[in-house]
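Reopening: structure tokens for the NAP complex, inputs below.
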Amino acid sequence: MLITGGSQGIGAAIVQHARKSGHDVVFTGRNDAHIQETAAKTGAHGIKADVSSDADNQRVVDEALKKMGGIDVLINNAAFGYNAEIGSLDVNAMRTLFATNVFGAVDLTNRVVPHMTSKADGDIVNIASTSGMKGAKGATVYAGSKWAMRGITQCWQADLRPHGIRVICICPSEVQTNWMGKTGRNNPNKLYAEDIAATIMAGLEMPRRVLWTELAVFREQSVEGRLGAWVPGCLGAWVPGCLGALGAGSIEREQRVIR
Ligand SMILES: NC(=O)c1ccc[n+]([C@@H]2O[C@H](COP(=O)([O-])OP(=O)(O)OC[C@H]3O[C@@H](n4cnc5c(N)ncnc54)[C@H](OP(=O)(O)O)[C@@H]3O)[C@@H](O)[C@H]2O)c1
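Re-run output (same inputs, fresh job):
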């Protein structure tokens, strides 16, 4: 299994779950310390590589083939975010983001697919987002990249289904990683990286005749969240604040969160 951006967050959780399920795993990342930490924890092989670099992608494919003898599963996970409203958007920042979130995934997959089609077997998982399912304020760049990945997934399904290769798109809602520098979150109404890893492994472990084309993953609300949802009318405006003050947790609706 080859996983991009496996050095931390959702990618690192996928590395961990895949290793527990007995897969050989090669993963990428850019931060040396994080790569070493995940490799030491899981026994997976980490490669320092930037997915926006064509040369790095070829090196990753060569090293993965050498290490594992083939690539049965590719997980396009590496990505980052950028928020800005139209009118004050830095288009160069958008180009840089698309170079990783979209073109990087396309370039790497383009290099991996011939090795899968030659065996008429393989799985490709694209990590998109619920941000790629509904537009939101300030989300042109990031959401645009995730809408792109959803559309690209459908095209790859058409290209690769005749070759016995499954292409799956996973759209998580907010997940508590270090995404965009947010650390130390412990919100009972948000997903954890392990939840997404477990979802992906479940999809991969289905019989090969089963294809999940696309899956949105939301957090089932905690008791505190459900209590907030029940409060009718104007009470709803102040009771969540009281619950928050009591440390009972956020009741914000995940659908409203840009991630
Ligand atoms: N967190 C959320 O709420 C959320 C929700 C929906 C979807 N997602 C999606 O889930 C995926 C993982 O997000 P996350 O929350 O786990 O993010 P994260 O904690 O910031 O981790 C991102 C990972 O991607 C790697 N990465 C970023 N740019 C890279 C590049 N150019 N080349 C190689 N690796 C690169 C990072 O490596 P280094 O740190 O080593 O550079 C890191 O391992 C992304 O596709 C994201 O869009 C996240």
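Helices lie at 9-20, 32-42, 54-68, 91-117, 140-160, 193-205, 223-230, 235-245. Strands lie at 2-3, 26-29, 45-48, 73-76, 122-127, 165-172, 214-217. Marking as resolved unless the reporter disagrees.
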